[in-house]
């Protein structure tokens, strides 16, 4: 069977590898002209790492990951440590260590494993035609390709999603999470936090955090609640918002190179919906369940999609259309639930209700981390990669 995948991100390439490993002829198209991933890094919890293990790249992913041994929260203004605890119980309960990784490193790994000779960059999808026997993709340069199946992993503003949901469906609503995220990579600096710890400074509905990744680097991010549509100088905005914060946060801002690794992203998500397929076409990843980064499950959920798609293709034999419907049926509820969990977490931590956020701050002081770990494990427990076994 020939499969066209639209999108060479984490979801698209992992789906491509899964289908290749089943013996199918897969080609990936992406509108980007070079590999420049959006966002500096991502957190791979055990559900995402297990999919990557299943795809045969586990050792390489482990080499890209940072030593995420502990988690700590600090008061953003004073720098006082509110709590610190081991993350080992998550590995013990889920059977796999988590890894923060640079997005570009992971994407390069997946593209190379899939085969760069089978990836066509600079190709913008502008048309899809399904005649009931094959599906044809048309690109902006006028070229076409025909296959038995088309998978749209083309992001939050997906062309494929518009085709799948069709004119008769209600429009897919985007929801602003109420904050802007600033992220990038910096060299490790002990003034900011230890190199084996996820360190987060919190106050005023804002956050500043670092996670260790390979290469003696920190993945960092800041969150600032603000109206959508405002634009400005990202580094100047960070200085203004955090000038009165703790020395560790100020050291982080000083480490950022203006022309280096600094992304400014308004955070939106998409209301959960259940129309993921149309004939021989299906969507995957952000195209199907764009979510906020507040529970660290965006990339993991896309990897779960790739796993579920691979299992459906390997086991269902009625038709391509039936296979895709079964893939979607296995994913819609869980993926939508993660979107809503992340949305609720964003509201709690970013001051949507100041008293709720203040209560969260008070709850961090002196905690042993059991509740936080329970929440992280709860996001993992329903993963299809666990084959219904949940966690221990």
Automatic annotation (TrEMBL):
GO terms for molecular function: FAD-dependent urate hydroxylase activity. It comes from the Bacteria. It is an enzyme of class 1 (oxidoreductase). Residues 2-339 form the FAD-binding domain. Keywords: FAD, Flavoprotein, Monooxygenase, NAD, Oxidoreductase, Purine metabolism. SUPFAM superfamilies: FAD/NAD(P)-binding domain (SSF51905). Its EC number is 1.14.13.113. Gene3D superfamilies: FAD/NAD(P)-binding domain (3.50.50.60). Its cofactor is FAD. It catalyses: urate + NADH + O2 + H(+) = 5-hydroxyisourate + NAD(+) + H2O. InterPro entries: FAD-bd, FAD-dep_Monooxygenase_BioMet, FAD/NAD-bd_sf, HpxO. Pathway: Purine metabolism; urate degradation. The keyword Iron-sulfur does not apply. Belongs to the FAD-dependent urate hydroxylase family. This is FAD-dependent urate hydroxylase.
């Amino acid at each position: 069977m020939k499969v066209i995948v639209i999108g060479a991100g984490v979801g698209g390439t992992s789906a491509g590898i899964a289908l290749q490993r089943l013996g199918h002829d897969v080609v990936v198209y992406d509108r980007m002209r070079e590999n420049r991933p959006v966002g500096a890094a991502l957190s791979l919890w055990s559900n995402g790492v297990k999919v990557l293990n299943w795809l045969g790249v586990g050792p390489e992913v482990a080499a890209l990951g940072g030593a995420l041994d502990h988690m700590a929260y600090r008061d953003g203004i004073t720098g006082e440590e509110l709590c610190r605890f081991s993350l080992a119980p998550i590995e013990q309960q889920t059977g796999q260590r988590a890894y923060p990784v640079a997005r570009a490193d992971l994407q390069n790994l997946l593209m190379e494993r899939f085969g760069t000779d089978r990836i066509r960059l600079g190709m913008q999808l502008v048309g899809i035609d399904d005649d009931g026997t094959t599906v044809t993709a048309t690109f902006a340069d006028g070229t076409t390709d025909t296959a038995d199946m088309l998978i749209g992993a083309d992001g939050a503003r997906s062309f494929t999603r518009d085709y799948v949901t069709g004119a008769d469906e209600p429009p897919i609503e985007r929801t602003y999470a109420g904050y802007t995220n600033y992220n990038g990579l910096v060299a490790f600096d002990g003034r900011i936090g230890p190199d084996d710890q996820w360190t987060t400074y919190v106050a005023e509905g804002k956050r500043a955090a670092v996670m260790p990744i390979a290469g003696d680097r920190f993945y960092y991010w800041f969150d600032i609640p603000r109206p959508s549509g405002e634009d400005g100088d990202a580094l100047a905005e960070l200085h203004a918002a955090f000038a009165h914060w703790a020395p560790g946060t100020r050291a982080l801002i000083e480490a950022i190179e203006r022309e280096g690794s600094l992304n400014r992203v308004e955070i939106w998500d998409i209301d959960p919906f259940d129309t993921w397929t149309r004939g021989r076409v299906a969507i995957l990843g952000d195209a199907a369940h764009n979510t906020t980064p507040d529970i660290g499950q965006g990339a993991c959920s896309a990897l779960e999609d790739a796993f579920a798609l691979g299992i459906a293709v390997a086991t269902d034999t009625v038709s391509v259309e039936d296979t895709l419907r079964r893939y979607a049926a296995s994913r819609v509820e869980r993926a939508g639930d993660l979107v809503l969990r992340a949305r609720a977490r964003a509201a709690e931590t970013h001051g949507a209700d100041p008293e709720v956020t203040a209560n969260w701050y008070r709850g961090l002081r002196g905690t042993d981390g059991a509740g936080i770990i329970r929440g992280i494990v709860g996001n993992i427990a329903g993963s299809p990669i666990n084959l219904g076994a949940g966690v221990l």
